[in-house]
Every structure is written in structure tokens, then in C-alpha cells.
Design goal:
Elements (H helix, E strand, L loop, with lengths): L22 H10 L14 H7 L4 H14 L5 E7 L6 E8 L2 E5 L10 E5 L2 H6 L14 E5 L2 E2 L15 H9 L2 E3 L3 H5 L6 H7 L5
Antiparallel strand pairs: 1-2, 1-5, 1-6, 2-3, 3-4, 5-7
């Protein structure tokens, strides 16, 4: 398995990551970066471009977090939370403390955020996002979660590429996923309450 290149610690944009020695610190750092609202067009930036620009959306933040985890001895793993076609997937950078999984995320909303390392498996972690994942009409949209996508196995540059990483986004989207619900459970879903919908509209940036 590939180790993190030693040369990364010398790259100016990545120096802040060298100080982030715990998942809590990584999440705190991500929270200081403004959300990337993509006003100039959609982006899918590498960590170096993201940190240089100093704005990030969900995937860009997950890649930054995964790289920071890798730089401090962990594995750079990504979990994709897959939704219905009328909603948007969410990416989580995974970490473990002992036997338990946690998650680091970048979002502009009050929900779908950091998860403490208290989940016995990835299904438990994924389901912790289920009731927060809904549309303005109350429809609950989370349907599946991916196996951990190990960025060490990606044979192209995801750390410092200047071009957008659409090929990596597609690879994560197409990677093996596990369903959270069966058809009967989907048919019986209750819509989110009005107060949950209002809470979901609260944004940070």
C-alpha cells in the first residue's frame, strides 16, 4: 500500500495540514474554510487547488480531510452517501478510533456534519445521516452508502492536480454501494417534520 509522499510536507498549501494531528482538528480546520458556491462554474478540485482558493464544497472538503488523515498515519478513505436522483450525494472522510468509525465532512448546512468515532460499522455511520437527509418537501432521500474508497489505490494525481477531478468523482460514484432500505421500507417512509425542514435550511456561509 502506498505511503504518503514525504515531499508533501514541503508544499506551501499543505503546511496547515501538518498541524492537524487529530480528526477533531481536521474538522475544525475545514469549518474555517468558506463553502465553495461554484459561482464561476462547477469545480472538483484537488486538495492543493482547494486550499489555494480557500473554498470547498463537500467532495473537495472530503479530499482535504482524507489527505490530512493520511499525512498523520491513517488511511485516506472516502464514503459516498448516495441519494435519490432528485437530491445530491454527500461524501464523508472516514477515520477510526479503536474499533469505531467516525466521519469528517464539509457542508454549508446545519446537518450532515462531523460524526464522533462511536459507530461499530459503516452501515451504522451511514444511517446516522438518514433522518437529516431530506428535501424541502420533506422527502427523505438517502438510499445507499459506499464501501470505503481508498485513495491510495487511485493511480492518478488527486492531491495536486490542477485540472478538476471529474474522473475520480465518477469512480467514487460507481464504486460498490450497499442499500440502506428495501422497497417496503422506502414505500413506508414518513416525511420530515416542518421543524426538521426549517433546521435543514440553516446555512453557515
Amino acid at each position: 500500500m502506498k505511503r504518503v509522499p514525504r515531499s508533501l510536507s514541503k508544499i506551501r498549501e499543505l503546511k496547515p495540514l501538518a498541524r492537524l494531528s487529530s480528526p477533531k482538528r481536521i474538522q475544525d480546520f475545514l469549518d474555517t474554510i468558506p463553502i465553495n458556491k461554484e459561482r464561476g462554474g462547477e469545480t472538483c478540485s484537488s486538495p492543493i487547488v482547494t486550499l489555494r482558493r480557500r473554498s470547498a464544497h463537500c467532495m473537495e472538503g472530503a479530499l482535504v480531510a482524507a489527505l490530512a488523515i493520511w499525512m498523520h498515519g491513517g488511511a485516506p478513505l472516502i464514503m459516498d452517501l448516495k441519494t435519490t436522483d432528485d437530491d445530491v450525494d454527500h461524501l464523508v472522510a472516514l477515520f477510526k478510533k479503536g474499533r469505531y468509525w467516525g466521519g469528517i465532512t464539509k457542508t454549508n448546512h446545519s446537518v450532515l456534519r462531523y460524526r464522533e468515532p462511536m459507530f461499530r460499522d459503516l452501515r451504522e455511520l451511514a444511517t446516522s445521516y438518514f433522518h437529516e437527509y431530506s428535501l424541502p418537501n420533506g422527502k427523505k432521500t438517502l438510499r445507499a452508502y459506499s464501501e470505503p474508497f481508498d485513495l491510495r489505490l487511485w493511480d492518478r494525481d488527486w492531491i495536486s492536480a490542477e485540472d478538476d477531478l471529474w474522473d475520480l468523482e465518477q469512480a467514487i460514484d460507481r464504486s460498490p454501494h450497499r442499500p440502506l432500505l428495501n422497497r417496503s421500507q422506502i414505500a413506508g417512509l414518513r416525511k420530515a417534520d416542518e421543524i426538521e425542514i426549517r433546521a435543514g435550511k440553516l446555512v453557515e456561509w
